[in-house]
Amino acid sequence: MARFKIALVVGSNRRESINRKLAQALAKLGGDKLDFKFAQIDDLPLYNQDDENNLTPSVVRFKSELAAADGILIVTPEHSRSIPAVLKNAIDWGARPWGKNSWTGKVVAVTGTSQGAISTALAQQHLRQILGAQGVVLAGGEAYLQFKPGLIDANDVVTDESTRGFLKSFLDQFAALVAKLAEPAKAQSAA
Length: 191
Hints:
By secondary structure, the chain is an alpha/beta fold. The protein has one domain (4-190): Flavodoxin domain (Rossmann fold, 3-Layer(aba) Sandwich). It is built from five helices and six strands. The chain has helices at residues 18-29, 57-68, 85-95, 121-132, 161-190; strands spanning 4-10, 34-38, 71-75, 107-114, 137-138, 143-146. Strands 1, 2, 3, 4, 5 and 6 form a six-stranded parallel beta sheet that branches. The longest helix is centred in the last third of the chain and has 30 residues, at 161-190. The radius of gyration is 16 Å and the shape is globular.
């Protein structure tokens, strides 16, 4: 089976983000089928349409990382019942300038964690709505994870067996969709 490149976007700029810990654990858990590369978003300038004709190196890098990926996995917290500003900013830069949308046609899976009982359900709902307008193919399945102390160890391993199985299934479904949609595109571009 071919290995596919996945841009891993963490929707948090906190150094000790539990969503970053989850993203690292997911990269390890899905590493048997997918090659993950973290796409940095915390250094992107605040989106301003006036700057679209003179993109900063960080924006060029980010758009290139999206373009090079076969799929995108977004792991995000929930801020004020929606997505964090740093993530919305990244989505805006990825979508612009007009006609150069780096999200279009990409297979995207969304997950996230918080300490609350409903986890990041509302953020994920908003994120799916925003991404749908960008022309992505949203991977089915939803993964809301309540974060508890000790859930992920110092080696980025999910310690709870049933949670690990659930997340592995989520990643396997994502990998299958990426393979189904990216393989024909790779074959067509090689022809």
